């Protein structure tokens, strides 16, 4: 079981915050995420990213499509990617921690 957990933690090593609001990122983001706006993703800016990992793109929430644009851009550059549907908003509703707050009660039973 421990090997399985370690496998998935390493496989999903990086999460990319792909919306363009650095002030919002500085205020709150998923722990371990890097601020990487989708408009800045290109061969030069991604040259130091490891293509062995799956990159999870997320944005503010349902009304934002930055995660979709980020996932598309990074996939076009040859990276494995997934999109965190619901973004930061639903991450928090599901009770997960952010850089700002500890794990709170789950607000969604999904």
Automatic annotation (TrEMBL):
Matches recorded under SUPFAM superfamilies: Rhodanese/Cell cycle control phosphatase
The record places domain Rhodanese at 17-100
Question: Which Pfam families does this chain map to?
Answer: Rhodanese
Record-linked Gene3D superfamilies = Rhodanese-like domain
Give the top-rank taxon of the lineage listed in the UniProt record for this protein: Bacteria
Q: Report the InterPro entries cross-referenced here.
A: Rhodanese-like_dom (IPR001763), Rhodanese-like_dom_sf (IPR036873)
Designated name of the protein? Rhodanese
Native source species: Halarcobacter anaerophilus
């Amino acid at each position: 079981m421990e090997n399985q957990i370690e496998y998935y933690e390493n496989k999903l090593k990086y999460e990319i915050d792909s919306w363009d609001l650095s002030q919002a990122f500085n205020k709150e983001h998923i722990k371990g995420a890097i601020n990487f706006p989708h408009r800045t993703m290109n061969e030069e800016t991604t040259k130091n990213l490891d293509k062995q990992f799956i990159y999870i793109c997320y944005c503010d929430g349902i009304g934002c499509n930055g995660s979709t644009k980020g996932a598309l851009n990074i996939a076009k550059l040859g990276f494995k990617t997934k999109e965190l549907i619901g973004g930061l908003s639903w991450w928090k509703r599901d009770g997960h921690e952010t850089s700002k707050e500890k794990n709170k009660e789950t607000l969604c039973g999904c």
